[in-house]
Amino acid sequence: MVAADTDISTLVVEVVRTDLDLKEGCLIEVSIASFPVLYQIMNGLTKEEILQQKNTRGYVRIHAKKIGCWNHQEQRFEVVKWITNPNAPVFLESTRSAAANRDAIGYFPGTAYPVCVDPVPLVTHNTAILGILGAGKSFLALELVERMLAAKIKVICLDLTKQYADALARYYAPEEQEEFTALQAVGPPGKTNVQQNVEEGGSIIPFQEKLREQLEAFLASSDPRLLKIYNPVAFEVWRQDSKPFKGRASMASLTPTEITRIFTEVTLEVLQGQGMTDGARCCLVFEEAHSLIPEWNAVATEGDKIATNGTAKAILQGRKYGLGCLVITQRTANVTKSILNQCNTVFALRVFDSTGMEFLRNYIGEDYAGVLSTLEDRHAVVFGRASSCRDPVLVRLNDRNDFLAVFRQTAPQSGQP
Question: Which top CATH class is 119-407?
Answer without folding.
Answer: alpha beta
